[in-house]
Amino acid sequence: MGYKGFIFDIDGVLCRGDKPIPGAKETIAKLREAGIKIVFLSNLSTKSREEYVEKLHRLGIPAEPEDLVLATSAIADYVAKHCKSKKVYWVGARGLRKELEKAGLIVVEEPEEAEFVVAGSPFDEKGYVTEENRWKFTGALRAIKAGAKFVAVNPDPTFPGKDGKLLPGTGAFIGAVKAMTGVEPVIVGKPSPVIVQMALEKLGLKPDECVMVGDQIDTDMKAGKSAGLTTVLVLTGVTSREDLEKVDKSKLELVDYVFDSVNDVLKLI
Hints:
15 strands; five-stranded parallel sheet; Rossmann fold
């Protein structure tokens, strides 16, 4: 097969919340020992690259900021290129705000001043809307009605929490705003192949030399396949084996391999 690079989703693949998937750190170590290049890619909208490096270290996986491509940093770069006024209305966690500010954008409090509404997840780790975000549904509505463009980190309706149970994600916020405004956001994270292309550029490899490993068909597998990568679905996150039995056959064409866990990717080298 001759794969030279692996792109790993993080939550649901290497960990569940802050709990590591058994054998994940050993798998990453073995791949690196074999000379395989690795990039970590996450759709979660709550952390900056520095925060994710700390998380990976806690999981026992050595990493530096340049080893990560996050939807938070990708959306900050996208908006910085397209926002003339640099004024944005931010929804989500502090990690997203940090990436926006690092990209030279100005986070405004008044919705009508914003040129872009930048949406991450407004929910905390228990699935509740945070105090800082409790009025952002109304703010996003007013900003978009005043002419602001709508962009979102990812379309994920749910993601696995620390206990493996599902929590609402950015997609839940998108659904509410779309219902109020009729406006669909531009998605910068997965399933857009753009964010995967950024990971390929970091690896310095061609698509057919790389593998995308994730736990969701509609995001990870779709993004990887759209970018021309071999795709691996692991069953330790959002998707279970029972879920696979209910999936439309056309979606299964996005998946090249189905493995019980990340440990099984070693079969590909």
